[in-house]
Amino acid sequence: MRRILVQAHLGLVAxxxxxxxxxxxxxxxxxxxxFVHIDSTPSGAQVWVQPDNLTATTPGDIALSRKLSxxxxxxxxxxxxxxxxxxxxxxxxxxxxVVWVHPIGWLIGVCVDVGNGSGYTLTxxxxxxxxxxxxxxxxxxxx
Length: 143
Prior knowledge:
Elements: H1 2-21, H2 25-29, E1 33-41, E2 46-50, E3 54-57, E4 60-65, E5 70-75, E6 82-90, H3 103-116, E7 120-123, E8 126-130, H4 136-141
Parallel strand pairs: 1-8
Antiparallel strand pairs: 1-4, 2-3, 2-5, 5-6, 6-7
C-alpha cells in the first residue's frame, strides 16, 4: 500500500514538473515581444525609445518587450520634439490559460505568461505624431 502511495506522489510531482515546462497560452500565441509602429508627419524623424535606448527612423516598427513601459521621443531638425508613452498592461490573452483542465494548469500558465512578459500588451500599438515646426529664433538658439 505504501509503495502505491509513493508511486502516486511521484506521478503527481512528475506531472507538475512537466506542466511547468509547458508555456502559457499567451506565450504560445503572442510571444514576449511586440512590434510598435511609429510614424510622423513629416516622415524621416529620429525615434529614441527609453529605457532600452533603441533608435529608429519614421516610419518604422520597433520590437519591444511586452513586460516594460517605454517613452518614445520623436524629433526632427526644425520641429519641436514629441514624446509618447507606451504603457505595458495586462493582456486578455491570460484568460486563454483556462484551456487547462485543472486549476493548477491555469496557475502555471498565468505564471509563465506573466513571468516572461507575454501576458502583457503595449498600448498604443501604433504611434502617429504630427511634429510642430519651431520658430526660426528657437532653431538658431538650439531649442
